[in-house]
Structures are given as C-alpha cells and as structure tokens.
Amino acid sequence: MSNISNDSGLDDSAIGGAVAHPSGPAATRLSWFLAEVDEGSMKNGEPNGQPQLCVLHSMELLESDVSEKYMTRFVEFRVNGMVLEAKLILAADERRLVDAALASMSKEQREESNARQLLVQYTENEEAGDRLVQKLVSPSNVVWLSTKPELKCNPLVSLGPGCIAHVLYSYDQRDYMEKVLLHLKARCFDHAFDEQLDLPVAMDDDTWLLVQYSPEPETVVYQVIQFSQTVWRQENLFKDVIAYVQLPGSELVLQAVVISYGQDQRVQLAKYEELRRFAMDLDFPLPEELDQQLEQGSGTAALFSGTSIYQRAEDRDATGEHKQLRRSLEQMGEKAQSEAQMIIDAFDMVDNINKNLQCRLAGDVRLEMAATSGDELH
C-alpha cells in the first residue's frame, strides 16, 4: 500500500485499461482503489481530521463484495493491526491508472474545506448522444448570468463558451457538498431504477441503456446509449447492471451502472429527461440532517442499505440467471479466499521454521563457545 499526504475530489468512477481483457469471469473487473483516509488514524489510530490518500488492493479490504460501493463508497481495511475506514475515490483494473490519478491529484492544490461550492447541472451535446452532467464547481470558475443568484429558482451560470448550467445548490462546506452530490446521485438512481420489468428483456445490440457514470472527480453523468456502443460485452456477466463505456478520443474505459434498459429508445430518453427535471426540483437536506441520515441508515443511506445494485437487479430478473451467476461468483470467491489462506499459512510455516533454525543455530553457537571456553581453562 502506498500513501501520499494529499486530498482529492470525489470520483465514483471505475476506470479500467482499454486494451487488457479480463482473465476470468467477475462481477466487476476492478482490483485497485484510490481511497481517502484520516491521516491521524493511519499513523497512530487517533483521528485528526486531515485527509490522506492511499492506494488499496481488493485483497486488503475486509469485505470482499464491493459491488455496492459504487454508491456507499466506504470500505474497511486493516493496517498496522488496526481496522480503518476509507472513502473510495476511484477504482481501476490496472495499478498504473490508480498511480497516475494519485500523482495527478497530488499536484493539484485543493481549495479550502470551507470554501463555497456550487452543485450545477447542464447538458453536453455529444456525437454519441446528449449527456446530463451534475458536478461541483467553484464560484470563482463561473460567470453568473442571473441577476439575483440568491433566489431559489435554479439560477444560471456560464462554465465556459457555450456551456450554460443551472445551479441546483450551494454551500460553504466542501465535505458536505460532496455528500450532497452523493445524495443526489443516489436519489436519481432510485428515482429512475426499474424495479420490475413488464417482460424479460434480452440484452442485444439494439437494446437502449440509461447509464450513470463518473468520468472525473466530483462529476456524475447520465446518458442513453445503445448496448452496441459498450465495450467488453462478452466478458461482462451482468450486462443489465454494469456497462463498460469508452468515451470518444479516450483510452480509458469507464464502468457505468445501468439504471434502466429496453428496446424502445423513446422510453429511455423520457427517463433521461425526467431525471433532469427531478434534480431541478429536489430539496437537499442540511448538514446536520444529512449526517444524521447517514448515521441512522435512513434517507440517502437507506436507498442502498442492506442491498446492492446487483441484488436489486436480481430482484427484477425473472429468469433466475442473476442468482446462479452470483452463487457461482461466491463459490469462486470462497475458493480464492481459501487458497489465499493456504498461502498465508505456508508463509507462516516457513517463517516459523526459519525462526526455529535461527534459535537452534544461536544455541549451537553458544554451546560451541562454551566448549571452547572450557578447553581454554584446561
């Protein structure tokens, strides 16, 4: 595990190398995580409120199933005999991508934690289809177009040439605004997720998907795409839960969550437009209320408490294929954990043998020295 004393933005994306292919079936391809921990907790177990970045491997996590961490983002791992909680920032299939993100974030000087942040929403017109973007921005990076931005009517700001955004919310505490973005992300997912499908829908190249992903820190994107536009289709076991998308001109592959899907593009576009309006009318909880919800497992936390996006997709699966795949993956995980424990036990055995040999050699040396000393006396 490598560490660096630096803070970073929120990135719920899952990024994998675009060239490599998975060596075997898995719920997700992700193995490496960039996470944020408390600096004091990492050093001596005493929290000091200072964030620190670290790189974790999935084997270091105490919970092997990270399928729902796309939403909750919090995991536990063990270091120096202590169990610490970490906030996932991004995940990747290759270590080099996580290291590159860590190096990039270490060079960026983050704004003060009490600086005002704006939660904005806007639409990007791309060749592959429109994208609905929700992200955090600094007021210093926008131009206010509304004459009275303090009014609660989603004032307009300009983020750059041709990019006009609605301000959904603003506050003077960055950590709270990150939680607000997570709250919005969870509420949008829950609002548009299909709990039941009228008929079992077979996933083919003509299927339309409404997906949610994060291409960069503090950003969430919604887009309607065709299944044929995704990559790693053959290797993806849970096509109705996860989609791997590669943005034009990029070598990175992003892991997206499938919120809804079907054969009719108009239905998915209607859900997409509904999400845009839903975010504009949403009331956000105040810091104390949001923290209380997270602690009590209500509100935002309740949307995914005790269940994962895989479980929710399994509930709507009429074929039973999900349950079979999950059981198969569980068996593979149990086998991998058993093999890992055997390796650990083997290393412990070798370590004990080495210690015993060292003790025996040390004893032989002492006996030899005692014998030599006795000969000298005679």
Q: How would you describe this structure in keywords?
A:
378 residues; alpha+beta; 15-stranded mixed β-sheet; 15 strands; 27% strand
Q: Topology of this structure?
A:
Elements: E1 3-4, E2 14-17, E3 32-38, H1 39-44, E4 51-57, H2 69-72, E5 74-79, E6 82-92, H3 95-107, E7 117-126, E8 129-137, E9 143-144, E10 156-160, E11 163-171, H4 174-192, E12 208-213, E13 219-226, E14 242-246, E15 252-262, H5 265-280, H6 287-296, H7 309-315, H8 321-377
Parallel strand pairs: 2-6
Antiparallel strand pairs: 1-4, 2-15, 3-4, 3-6, 5-6, 7-8, 7-11, 8-13, 9-10, 10-11, 12-13, 12-15, 14-15
Helix pairs in contact: 4-5
Notes on the protein architecture:
The protein is α+β, with helices and mostly antiparallel strands. It contains 8 helices and 15 strands. It has helices at 39-44, 69-72, 95-107, 174-192, 265-280, 287-296, 309-315, 321-377, and strands at residues 3-4, 14-17, 32-38, 51-57, 74-79, 82-92, 117-126, 129-137, 143-144, 156-160, 163-171, 208-213, 219-226, 242-246, 252-262. It has a 15-stranded mixed beta sheet that branches. A hairpin with a 2-residue loop joins strand 5 and strand 6 (82-92). The longest helix is centred in the last third of the chain and has 57 residues, at 321-377. The protein starts with a strand and ends with a helix. Mean pLDDT is 76; it is low at 1-28.
